[in-house]
Structures are given as C-alpha cells and as structure tokens.
Design goal:
The structure is a homodimer of 195-residue chains.
Chain A: E1 13-22, E2 28-38, E3 41-47, H1 51-59, E4 61-66, H2 70-78, E5 86-90, E6 96-100, E7 105-114, E8 119-131, H3 141-159, H4 162-170, H5 172-178, H6 181-194
Helix pairs in contact in A: 2-3, 2-6, 3-4, 3-5, 3-6
C-alpha cells in the first residue's frame, strides 16, 4: 500500500508547517510555510532570496514538519533555531537532512521548482515520512490565536504597517483565556519581539 | 503508570471538544463545550436547562470527544446528530454511554457538579479513555476560522446581534483560501443556517 503525505498530517488545503532545509555545506534552516495540498498535488511557494529558497535551489529537497508546539512555531519565525533542535536523517541518496526533533511527524519531499519573478513554486513529491508523536490534541482557540498573531507579525516585519500591531494585540485576550502555558509564552515572545 | 486526560488530547487551557451525555432513558446528546484543564484540575461550566446540564444532573457523567472534523463540530451545534454517529460504550458501573464514532479520542469523566444561578460547574474525574485515530494533522487556518465562526454563530443564536453576522462572514475568505473540502462544507453549513 502506498502511504501518502496525508497519513503524516499533510491534509487537503493549506498546511501550516515548519519547513526544514539544508545548505550545500550542511547548515540547517527552519521556516514556517504553508504547503498546499490540492487533489493529490502538493506544492509550495517560496520567496526568492530566502534561506529556504536558496537551499531548495541547491539541494532540491525540503522537509515538512508537523508541529503542535506554539513556541516552536514562534521561534522558527523570530529566531534561528538552535542546532540541537534538529535531527539529521539519512536519505536514500546518502545526503543527511534536517528535520525538527520536536515535530509530531515529518515528510521529506523532492522539490521540483519553477522560478518566478518574486517566488519559486516547488512541486513536491514525497520521498519518506515518519510519525514521531501520535498523541491526539483537542482544539485550542488560544493556540489558533497565536498562529494568527504570528502570521501578522511576519507581515509586520516586511511591511511595517502600524495597523497590524493593533490586530496582533487583539489576539491577546483569547490567548490568555484559552491558551495553556506554551501558548502564553509563545504570544509573549511575539509581543516582546515587536517592542 | 497513571495515564491522565492529557494523553487523550485534553491539554492545559480550554479544550474545545464535543461533550456527549445521555438522558436517564438513554437518549444521547452532543454539544461543543470548552473543558478547562488547569494545574491538573479538569472542569467545565454548563448552562442550566441545556440537555448537557440536565443529563449531568441525571447521570453524573460526561464524555469529552476530541474531534478534528469541522463538519462534525458544526453539526453538533446546528443539528441533532444522527443516532448512528454515536458509539455506545459500556462503563464499569454497567451503564452504557455515548461517545462519537468519529472522534480521534474520548475521555469519560465523572462529573461532580456545583449548581449556580445560570450554570453548573462540573469538576471532572477521568474514569476511562480511548484513542481511536492517531493520525497527525497539520495546522489549518481554514479549520481554525470555522471554529471561530461557529463560536460566533452560537452566540448569534442566543443574542441575535447583527454585528456578529459581519464577523462570521469575515472568516469566509480564510476558509476558502486555506481550508479543504470539509472546512468549506462546514463553513457553508454555518452560512446557510444563518440565512
């Protein structure tokens, strides 16, 4: 039986995952990216000049890490992740490739890209996958609010629009009401970063 | 080893789950409710007069169903669920109790309640739990938007405030952009219900 990316958590629609890649000299990189799954086709748009884009040009590979930890999501946007947060896996081609040690699951894809004026589109074909943590998790609106605030914070970093700050702050009450310790910590990191 | 509700997906913070209960004569009921987990204490607030509240008074039991299907969430608010959507489990006390056949996991709790003027507070002690589907699932902002729209739709049903309709409609673009077929169907059911 052929097991596809959906068994590892990449479902129909846009999947907010942390994409890991490596440079030619082996430096790992992590960035939150939306992977599109539409009628069995998997693809991703990556802005030119980003580490992820350069690494895909160099290696033709990316890994999608399914993550449920809000702090890890925020760190992957605001910080470089520490080297010990990556696990190096050995691929069939002999290249070692970084995935996130704390992911619930990961899928390694071959990325066949088409270049565009501002971004490349990479068509993804699954090479391998692994499920690390199968614990179920209920819906937490505080977690979801952190993700929305993080999307806005990434946008603020590029466009610097003041109106985004108000929208980011508007998520605070939901995080405080519904989130656990991790959600509050993650949201606090976003607010601290913006100050 | 003592396995607690967190292993079944009930994490710190407010857990948006579908609570199933049964009446004295065995009729199952399902309603979306937030279960609070705070420092190892599990509790829930249930409005007086609701089916859930009456059933807890009668049986002292409730089950928290961890659900990832947005259509199931919406149906549990807007419709009564069909009888075949429930699985009857046998408890230690001999009583059969309904859980959702499509849940990822469920936890059966003894509910020790304190009555209040508008709502009861039930303190929850886990009796049993089961994991049914361990498939990981990436973050989908379209799914999260359906949950937010559903919270507002429940509020609209009670308070009938027109301003809520605009907020519900504002989630449509995120559902269409990021959601899969299930998210679009679920959101469509909310919009249809409101018309």
């Amino acid at each position: 039986m052929n097991i596809g990316p959906d068994k590892y958590g990449i479902k129909e629609g846009i999947n907010e995952v942390i994409v890991t890649t490596r440079s030619l000299n082996g430096k790992p990189n992590a960035a939150p990216i939306g992977i599109i799954s539409d009628k069995g086709i998997f693809k991703v748009k990556v802005f030119n000049g980003s580490h992820t884009s350069i690494n895909i040009l160099d290696t033709g590979l990316l890994a999608a890490n399914i993550v449920g930890d809000p702090v890890l999501f925020v760190r992957s946007v605001l910080d470089d992740l520490d080297i010990e947060m990556f696990t190096m896996i050995k691929t069939d081609t002999g290249i070692t490739f970084p995935v996130l040690a704390q992911s619930s699951a990961w899928v390694l894809f071959r990325a066949d890209y088409t270049s565009g004026s501002t971004a490349m589109t990479a068509h993804l074909n699954m090479i391998a996958g692994n499920i690390i943590n199968q614990e179920p998790r209920s819906v937490n609106r505080g977690f979801n609010a952190v993700i929305e605030a993080l999307v806005l914070a990434s946008r603020y970093r590029v466009f610097n629009e003041e109106s985004l700050l108000d929208r980011i702050e508007s998520y605070g009450s939901l995080v405080n009401k519904c989130g656990g310790t991790c959600e509050k910590e993650a949201y606090g990191m976003i607010i601290e970063y913006l100050q």
